[in-house]
Amino acid sequence: MRKTLNAALMLCMALAPSVALADAMPDTERKKIEAQMQKQTQPLSLQQKNIASIAAYAAVGDLTGLNAALNRGLDAGLTLSDCREILVQLYAYAGFPRSLNALGELMKVTESRRLAGQQDQPGQQPGPLPAPETMMAAGKRNQTALVGSPVKGPLFDFAPVMNDYLQSHLFGDIFERDNFSWKNRELATVGALAAMEGVEPQLKSHLGINIGLTADQLSELVPFFSEQQQPGWADRLKAALNSVAQQ
Asked: What are the residue ranges of helices labelled H in 15-95?
């Protein structure tokens, strides 16, 4: 775990731990989280690479690029539900305006493909979610599993409501939606942060999260971004990976 941690990193899960699940966690919950964090042994699939690309275009508000990325992702086998989850999650990292605009673009892509006779798979809907009064507890459990220990520090002493929002909304409302894996959610986050300027510390912190993806697997996004004529994204991700490797 890093010795120094600024407020921005804390807001973006800025710890790089090995997962330690609490002994008191119910067995069903522990198994669910362990399954989410199981190591991926294969290279990133084309679908996974497109997840990062879709999130990246959406995060910077490039709707023309997003339109093309959505079409590529759907052609690669992503479902409409997958694409929707990427863009809904985006609000936590790029804000509601970018997320809403991106969802509007997905609606256009969906209708255009339907009129062209392309039948995209609808995908899965999330299973039952925790009751509202237990959502924060579920979010805290997910946050702790991802970070490796309960999140605390001067930032949350100063503004404790921020951690309440993280636990109830991001790690609760979003991460409890089981129709999109935690690995895919992290790929979407890495893609978004690689595309955005000025958030390199957050990008590096996410590259260290133990979600079952290796640095070699994440590095596969570098040439993928370059192929899409996005050298800035590729360079930021490569630099962040090199920085994390040297720590």
From this structure: 27-36, 46-59, 63-75, 80-89, 91-94
Distances (CA, A) of 154 to 29, 170, 181: 29, 20, 31
Residue 152 has pLDDT above 90, yes or no: no
Instruction: Choose among 14, 3, 2: nearest CA to 156.
Output: 14
The CB density around residue 18, as the number of other CB atoms within 10 Å, is 7
What is the structure's pLDDT at 112?
98
The full set of domain ranges for the chain reads 44-126+178-247, 128-176
Q: Is the pLDDT of residue 20 over 80?
A: no
Q: What is the pTM of this model?
A: 0.87
CATH 1.20.1290.10 fits 44-126+178-247, yes or no: yes
